[in-house]
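re the bet — no i am not wrong, look at it urself. input seq straight from the record:
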Amino acid sequence: MARKMTGKGPLAGMKVIELAHIMAGPACGMMLADMGADVIKVEKPDGDDSRRFLPPDIKGESAAFMMMNRNKRGIALNLKDPDAIAILRRLLESADVVVENYRIDTMERLGLPYQTLREINPKLVYCAISGFGRTGPYAARGGFDLIAQGMSGLMSITGEGPGRPPVKPGAPISDITAGFLAAMGCIAAYSRAQATGQGQMVDTSLFEAGISLTYWQSAIAFATSEAPGALGSAHPLNAPYQSFRTRDGWINIGAANQRNWLRLLEVIGAPELRDDPRFASNLDRMNNLPELVELLEEFLCTRGTEDWLARMEAAGLPAGPVMTISQMHQDPQALARDMIVETEHPVAGPVKAIGLPVKFSETPGGVNRPAPTLGQHGREILLDCGFPSERIDTLVRQGALVVG
């Protein structure tokens, strides 16, 4: 059963302005909000583009948008109106962090580049997430997860091997990882600003996020001067460490060291492989991986996945099932760790989401607010900033502010 979390989190007191859309920037804002920050999401009058990522929807509300924007307050501004830009400037004057994933010249065109913002708010942490970073020959290029995955090398090491088409990981991992790296950078820079009163620019990108996920494969390439390729579910440095077919499905087995290799042979009843010179050491097993997989699957296909999992757990051998996303949502460990949570959305009703993957013993974070409807908190946010109600009504009438 999904649970609603109510913890304030270790970042309570941090004020974040999120000028971001779709995935990378919202992922950063989501992580900060889940850890307690007051994240104000600024949208254009027709909303974040992910509001139109349909289907799927829940009562007309985009499931994708609600997933990435829970725990945030929302305001919608028409930044073509000078009064809306003035509102944004007012928000930024008192913010601790601003997160944006616009193109490189957007904030300058709005009259709010980093140099201007640091003058009006010296403690501000300015986080820019882009396709390729703020410097270098690709700085002006737009950012897309698919492009970053290809250029970072990730697609060359994902898939089934030589002769097969390039494959990207199923999740938009360059986008999500860039968002998480940005959140880490924001927290580090915020910590320094708290101590010194001086903010700074935090600059990361989808490209660098993808590169950072190639540690093992880059180590191999640096050492051998050869680029490693795709290995399916296998590990580039250890064997057996991959998915294997069973009688009724698939099982992941992590027999990556000699002790676990010998345990595996005991569990499957193949003691004769102990003395097979093709598999005597990890190096031997890596050099003869196709033959190793074929032999192991002959044994593993004699029983079902659940049978093998019980036997391997009893032997202390790392192993696990290959679950669907829906099966993962119902897994008792995921539920016990509050990784499936629920909020009450004003339109969609009860909405489930993925929980905070970092736990804090003294200042627990979590998910306690649904994603905002378009402009839902506009009046509240401007009242917090000292705008009188009459002025807010005027801004709504002239179209500078869209309220829900």
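see?? The domain at 241-327 is CATH 3.30.1540.10 (formyl-coa transferase, domain 3). told u. also The radius of gyration is 25 Å. so pay up
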